[in-house]
Specification:
By secondary structure, this protein is of the alpha+beta class. It is built from three helices and four strands; from the N terminus they run H-E-H-E-H-E-E. The chain has one domain. Strands 1-2 form a two-stranded antiparallel ribbon. It has a two-stranded antiparallel sheet with strand order 3-4. A hairpin with a 2-residue loop joins strand 3 and strand 4. The two termini are 18 Å apart. The relative contact order is 0.18.
Length: 112
Protein backbone atom coordinates (compact mmCIF):
# COMPACT_ATOMS: atom_id res chain seq x y z
CA UNK A 1 0.00 0.00 0.00
CA UNK A 2 1.50 3.29 -1.13
CA UNK A 3 0.41 6.37 0.80
CA UNK A 4 0.83 9.93 -0.37
CA UNK A 5 2.63 12.44 1.85
CA UNK A 6 -0.76 13.88 2.78
CA UNK A 7 -2.13 10.46 3.75
CA UNK A 8 0.95 9.72 5.85
CA UNK A 9 0.55 13.07 7.61
CA UNK A 10 -3.13 12.30 8.25
CA UNK A 11 -2.10 9.02 9.92
CA UNK A 12 0.48 10.85 12.07
CA UNK A 13 -2.08 13.51 13.03
CA UNK A 14 -4.68 10.89 13.97
CA UNK A 15 -2.17 9.01 16.11
CA UNK A 16 -1.01 12.19 17.88
CA UNK A 17 -4.62 13.09 18.61
CA UNK A 18 -5.46 9.59 19.85
CA UNK A 19 -2.44 9.58 22.17
CA UNK A 20 -3.73 12.68 23.92
CA UNK A 21 -1.65 13.21 27.05
CA UNK A 22 0.19 9.87 26.96
CA UNK A 23 3.79 10.14 28.14
CA UNK A 24 6.99 8.18 27.41
CA UNK A 25 9.38 7.44 30.24
CA UNK A 26 12.79 8.64 29.09
CA UNK A 27 14.77 6.69 31.70
CA UNK A 28 15.24 3.04 32.43
CA UNK A 29 12.27 1.69 34.35
CA UNK A 30 14.54 0.52 37.20
CA UNK A 31 15.04 4.18 38.21
CA UNK A 32 11.71 3.85 40.05
CA UNK A 33 13.44 1.43 42.45
CA UNK A 34 16.08 3.96 43.52
CA UNK A 35 13.73 6.90 43.93
CA UNK A 36 15.40 9.16 41.37
CA UNK A 37 12.48 9.38 38.92
CA UNK A 38 10.81 12.75 38.53
CA UNK A 39 8.28 14.48 36.32
CA UNK A 40 11.17 15.70 34.15
CA UNK A 41 11.84 12.09 33.12
CA UNK A 42 8.66 11.91 31.05
CA UNK A 43 7.92 13.39 27.64
CA UNK A 44 4.51 13.83 26.01
CA UNK A 45 4.48 11.36 23.10
CA UNK A 46 2.38 13.60 20.84
CA UNK A 47 5.08 16.29 21.09
CA UNK A 48 7.82 13.98 19.75
CA UNK A 49 7.65 13.88 15.95
CA UNK A 50 10.03 10.93 15.69
CA UNK A 51 7.88 8.80 18.06
CA UNK A 52 4.71 9.74 16.16
CA UNK A 53 6.40 8.78 12.89
CA UNK A 54 7.63 5.49 14.40
CA UNK A 55 4.12 4.61 15.60
CA UNK A 56 2.54 5.68 12.30
CA UNK A 57 5.01 3.59 10.29
CA UNK A 58 4.27 0.60 12.52
CA UNK A 59 0.53 1.03 11.96
CA UNK A 60 0.90 1.49 8.20
CA UNK A 61 3.18 -1.56 7.94
CA UNK A 62 0.76 -3.68 9.96
CA UNK A 63 -2.14 -2.55 7.81
CA UNK A 64 -0.16 -3.22 4.63
CA UNK A 65 0.64 -6.72 5.89
CA UNK A 66 -3.01 -7.37 6.71
CA UNK A 67 -4.06 -6.23 3.25
CA UNK A 68 -1.53 -8.48 1.50
CA UNK A 69 -4.02 -11.22 0.85
CA UNK A 70 -3.97 -14.60 -0.78
CA UNK A 71 -7.21 -16.39 -1.43
CA UNK A 72 -9.16 -13.69 0.44
CA UNK A 73 -7.39 -14.25 3.77
CA UNK A 74 -4.72 -12.06 5.32
CA UNK A 75 -1.27 -13.57 4.96
CA UNK A 76 1.15 -12.83 7.80
CA UNK A 77 4.51 -11.55 6.64
CA UNK A 78 7.69 -12.80 8.30
CA UNK A 79 10.53 -10.33 7.89
CA UNK A 80 14.18 -11.32 8.02
CA UNK A 81 16.36 -10.18 10.92
CA UNK A 82 17.69 -6.68 10.28
CA UNK A 83 14.76 -5.62 8.10
CA UNK A 84 13.74 -1.98 8.56
CA UNK A 85 10.14 -3.14 9.01
CA UNK A 86 11.23 -4.74 12.28
CA UNK A 87 13.12 -1.71 13.52
CA UNK A 88 15.08 -3.86 15.92
CA UNK A 89 12.12 -3.91 18.29
CA UNK A 90 10.06 -6.74 16.82
CA UNK A 91 7.36 -4.46 15.43
CA UNK A 92 7.14 -2.56 12.17
CA UNK A 93 8.68 0.89 12.11
CA UNK A 94 9.59 1.29 8.49
CA UNK A 95 9.18 -0.03 4.99
CA UNK A 96 10.26 -3.59 4.29
CA UNK A 97 13.75 -3.86 2.83
CA UNK A 98 14.21 -7.64 3.12
CA UNK A 99 11.81 -8.55 0.31
CA UNK A 100 9.26 -10.32 2.53
CA UNK A 101 6.56 -7.68 2.14
CA UNK A 102 5.07 -6.20 -1.01
CA UNK A 103 6.99 -3.20 -2.27
CA UNK A 104 3.80 -1.14 -2.07
CA UNK A 105 4.50 -0.28 1.57
CA UNK A 106 5.35 3.21 2.76
CA UNK A 107 8.25 4.62 0.77
CA UNK A 108 10.87 5.99 3.17
CA UNK A 109 11.85 8.63 0.57
CA UNK A 110 8.40 10.19 0.87
CA UNK A 111 8.61 10.61 4.65
CA UNK A 112 9.22 13.98 6.20
Amino acid sequence: MKLTDEQQQAVRDAIAEALGDAYDCMRVWNAWNVGTMSQDDFQRVADDDSRIEEIANAAITALSSALATEGGEATPIEHRQGCSALGGYGHGVGPCDCGAAPQSQVDSDSEQ
